[in-house]
Design the sequence.
């Protein structure tokens, strides 16, 4: 192989972009490892504590784009205390010192301070793209710094972050000569926006393709913006309220007729459904529709809207669509690939509006479906077996029956057979979330059939350690396992500790695992950080009592040992 | 400024959930619709977290709500909670028919203006109460009396009010004239009112022609 100069190999490597593929390249031989590491520009780090900024740069000196994830997934559901960790500052600070030519930063579940954002904005003259998903710790002041100082900014994408809105003029901080914006998403901001500034910004951004507004932007402004930006590809409306007889609404209809490029639509945080017909011309081009924050759209108005969306590939919706509504989706949206049905009323768990019927209808009508997140009232084994037969191509299958441990209402049996059918039929399944009444049997099936499974989420399931062992033994590609309130204990945890080095992380909370077992894992596997999280019972928790059950354990492989920023309530064994 | 007492929840278009004065260049202040309650809601997210753990939901739950269940992101939970209230409000508005009628409200001596939606009120009394609460720390314009602003038609009371330091609500109508609030039927007032100004009593003298005449006659 030595007849190829490095430059040729490198050129070929340019076409290999996903980090999985690049990782595979680097394992072929030392020569390829060297070429690959020197040329990799986009680096993905799934656990920010698995490696340090220094070592990352040592291996990938050409780094231009960094993706970092912080807190474990269950942090989304309040299972991880806020200051557990995941601070981005050390990374930015190190990269700034090392004069990395950073262009892109994508963070998920991390703590981002205004100080970090300010430092970021001043340290990287070529910085182009900031994407923050489910992050917290910053305010609109930090955004102001980004707007003001990042002269080449193309993308500012804020998804579902908790941002302290100081109602300052952050949007005005974009300089008048900033014309490079391609993507701007501030839908999660809670405060007021200077509307005139927004309109001017849109007017001077000819490359703007993605614009997602927050609730403070009224329909009147939306109409003016659309007149200035008919080239938009992705639109998130703000507040969608007006008098359908008003001139504003007429102007909006005209503006939307010109927006032939819109393929993705979201928003409608406040909505007057009678004004939705303005969007019908847009609907027929849509490939992605997110109405999961629009409880105001339901019933016949929702159905009418969906009937126009014949090219839809991705649909995020609330369960008030009902089984009947899902049947309509199944008959009109034949190209559907991804469906997410979210619960609309979290206080009144007994009233989820979709059941197994809706899912069966979708599976029958949408053969291309491969990703599912489905919150429902109930599920039957028969339905799951039918779904598995109709849709053998699932990559992601996440089912959440709102009443935990709920059995099949028809047969009063657990849902083992149903999920078993899913894993057996769906040979490409990479992600699975279980719910409902489940015994060890379902895990036997998962271990046997789910050969491609990378992530498994378990809650209120299993009967004994055997369940967890089936999975650990059988799923060779398992990377993330997260378990809450299930009957797995020390035997399951300790039988094959070497397995955890092949995985990114393991989370177990409210299970039967004892402190002594956790200590043993830590002793045997120095390449793992085993963290015990004890928020409440600091006084009751006795560090020497190995018999006591551990409330929350999070272990992950790492190359840099225990972290030095762990708060008091986190104990690394 | 005593926002604690205002707690205005007007559910207006474009200001459903997050509300709050941003302060625009034009000097126009959008009302802090949720001045207090918005602060409340940012605490609420912490409260929601606590609530989930302590099962303090207002309805009686047959099952205890477990932390981490159902697996819905807190961001989404908070957003839906906020939207539930604002959707109810905007639905009510849609049912009552017609869009909002926003007018600016200025009060002499205050550093900033407010805005109200006249459609939220059914009578002068309602408006008077609301304005009274809004500006309660400035003075007692609630002295419009228990009989409402129509008290102004009572001459002796009018004189007391106009000569005193009490504030008087006035409005600019469609023709650009400044009128004393209370002369015309409520619905007609809502149709014709373009902005409200709460003047000091003495300055309002010019707006009550009959009273002014009488004033002149007496002196």
Sequence:
């Amino acid at each position: 192989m030595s007849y190829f100069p490095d430059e040729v190999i490198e050129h070929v490597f340019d076409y290999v972009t996903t980090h999985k593929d690049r990782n595979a390249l680097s394992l072929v031989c030392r020569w390829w490892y060297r070429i690959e590491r020197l040329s990799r520009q986009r680096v993905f780090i799934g656990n920010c504590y698995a490696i340090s900024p220094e070592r990352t740069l040592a291996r990938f000196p050409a780094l231009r784009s960094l993706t970092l994830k912080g807190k474990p997934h269950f942090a989304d559901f309040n299972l991880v205390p806020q200051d557990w960790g995941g601070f981005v500052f050390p990374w930015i600070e190190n990269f700034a010192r090392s004069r990395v030519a950073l262009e892109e930063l994508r963070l998920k579940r991390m703590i981002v301070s205004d100080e970090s954002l300010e430092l970021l904005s001043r340290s990287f003259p070529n910085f182009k793209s900031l994407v923050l998903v489910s992050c917290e710790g910053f305010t609109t002041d930090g955004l102001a710094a980004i707007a003001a100082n990042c002269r080449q900014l193309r993308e500012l994408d804020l998804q579902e972050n908790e941002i302290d809105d100081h109602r300052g003029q952050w949007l005005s901080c974009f300089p008048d000569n900033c014309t490079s914006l391609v993507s701007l998403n501030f839908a999660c901001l809670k405060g007021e926006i200077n509307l005139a500034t927004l309109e001017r910004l849109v007017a001077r951004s000819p490359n703007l393709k993605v614009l997602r507004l927050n609730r403070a932007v009224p329909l009147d402004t939306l109409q003016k913006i659309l007149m200035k930006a008919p080239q938009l590809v992705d639109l998130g409306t703000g507040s969608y309220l007006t008098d359908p007889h008003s001139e504003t609404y007429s102007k909006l209809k005209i503006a939307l007729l010109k927006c032939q490029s819109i393929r993705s639509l979201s928003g409608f945080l406040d909505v007057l459904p009678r004004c939705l017909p303005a969007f019908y011309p847009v609907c027929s081009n849509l490939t992605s529709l997110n109405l999961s924050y629009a409880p105001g759209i339901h019933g016949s108005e929702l159905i009418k809207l969906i009937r126009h969306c014949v090219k839809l590939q991705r649909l995020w919706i609330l369960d008030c669509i009902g089984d009947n509504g899902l049947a309509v989706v199944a008959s009109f949206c034949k190209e559907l690939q991804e469906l997410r049905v979210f619960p609309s009323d979290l206080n009144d768990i007994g009233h989820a509006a979709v059941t197994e019927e809706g899912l069966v209808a979708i599976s029958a009508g949408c053969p291309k479906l491969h990703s599912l997140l489905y919150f429902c009232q109930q599920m039957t084994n028969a339905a799951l077996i039918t779904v598995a037969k109709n849709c053998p191509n699932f990559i992601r299958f996440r089912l959440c029956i709102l009443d935990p441990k709920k059995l099949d209402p028809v047969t009063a049996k657990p849902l083992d057979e149903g999920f078993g059918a899913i894993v057996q039929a769906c040979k490409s399944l990479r992600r699975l979330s279980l719910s409902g009444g489940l015994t060890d049997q379902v895990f036997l099936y998962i271990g046997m059939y789910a050969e491609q499974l990378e992530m498994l989420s378990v809650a209120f399931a299993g009967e004994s350690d055997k369940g967890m062992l089936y999975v650990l033994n059988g799923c060779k590609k398992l990377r993330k396992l997260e378990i809450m309130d299930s009957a797995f204990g020390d035997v399951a945890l300790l039988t094959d500790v070497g397995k955890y080095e092949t995985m990114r992380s393991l989370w177990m909370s409210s299970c039967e695992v004892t402190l002594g077992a956790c200590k043993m894992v830590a002793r045997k596997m120095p390449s793992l950080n085993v963290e015990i999280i004890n928020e409440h019972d600091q006084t009751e928790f006795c560090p020497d009592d190995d018999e006591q059950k551990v409330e929350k354990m999070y272990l992950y492989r790492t190359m840099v040992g225990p972290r030095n920023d762990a708060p008091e309530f986190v104990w690394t064994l | 400024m005593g926002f604690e007492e205002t707690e205005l929840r007007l559910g207006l278009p474009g200001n459903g959930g997050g509300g709050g004065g941003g302060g625009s260049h034009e000097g126009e202040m959008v009302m802090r619709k949720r001045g207090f309650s918005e602060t409340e809601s940012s605490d609420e997210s912490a409260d929601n977290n606590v609530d989930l753990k302590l099962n303090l939901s207002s309805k009686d739950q047959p099952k205890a709500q477990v932390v981490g269940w159902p697996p819905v992101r807190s961001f989404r939970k908070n957003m839906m909670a906020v939207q539930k209230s604002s959707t109810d409000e905007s639905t009510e508005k849609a049912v009552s028919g017609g869009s909002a009628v926003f007018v600016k409200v200025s009060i002499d001596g205050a550093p900033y203006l407010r805005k109200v939606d006249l459609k939220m009120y059914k009578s002068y009394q309602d408006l008077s109460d609301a304005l009274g609460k809004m500006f309660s720390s400035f003075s007692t314009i609630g002295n419009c009396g228990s009989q409402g602003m129509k008290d102004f038609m009572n001459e002796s009371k009018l004189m007391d009010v106009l000569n005193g330091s009490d504030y008087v609500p006035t409005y600019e109508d469609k023709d650009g004239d400044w009128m004393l609030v209370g002369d015309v039927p409520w619905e007609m007032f809502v149709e014709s009112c373009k902005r409200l100004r709460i003047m000091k009593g003495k300055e309002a003298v010019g707006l009550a022609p009959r009273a002014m005449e009488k004033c002149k006659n007496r002196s």
